[in-house]
Write a structure and sequence with these properties.
The chain has 171 residues and is α/β, with parallel strands linked by helices. It has six helices and six strands.
């Protein structure tokens, strides 16, 4: 039997690939700041013992280098459609690492991040969406989806709040 290191919390970074970042910039998203912020958050959460998972579209290019992907400790999962869970090994990986909290960030708040957060909740995970580490085509769209997600399945929190919760043992 294979033994896995136990993690209670997973960071799920969605769609932070070079080509998608370029497309986001043309839509007015501050993709460079988003990538830098996610990279800093990933480093902090890795130090605190979170499981780090990067999820990329099958037909996309490489992950943005600022994210700090570490192939020795992190997972890189290719997804065929919107949700990071659909037809991937993500659920299996999280279960085997005994994850019960999922922190979702990346592109876009209203599409892939939302679908991933919904599916995380459907798989009995406590789902959070990082409000300052997601982006949509407009702040109004982002705010609408964060508000709606908070009513049904995924609590929006900031990266700072997530780090504080990890430090306090609440994740």
């Amino acid at each position: 039997m294979v033994e896995f290191e136990t993690h209670k919390t997973a960071v799920i970074v969605v769609n932070m690939q070079e080509d998608l970042m370029e497309a986001a910039k043309t839509a007015g998203i501050e993709a460079d700041a988003l990538a830098s912020g996610i990279g800093a958050f990933v480093r902090e959460m890795r130090i605190r013992g979170a499981l780090i998972t990067f999820v990329a579209s099958v037909d996309g290019r490489a992950l943005d280098a600022r994210l700090g992907y570490c192939p020795k400790t992190d997972y890189l999962i290719e997804k065929p459609c919107t949700s990071a869970f659909f037809e991937t090994d993500l659920r299996y990986i999280l279960m085997n690492h005994k994850v019960d909290h999922a922190l979702v960030c990346g592109l876009k708040t209203n599409l892939d991040c939302r679908a991933t957060a919904i599916d995380a909740t459907s798989h009995d995970l406590i789902s959070y969406i990082l409000s300052d580490l997601t982006a949509a085509d407009s702040e109004e769209t982002k705010a609408f989806h964060l508000r709606e997600m908070s009513w049904y399945f995924s609590m929006p929190i900031t990266a700072e709040e997530a780090i504080t919760r990890m430090n306090d043992g609440r994740f």
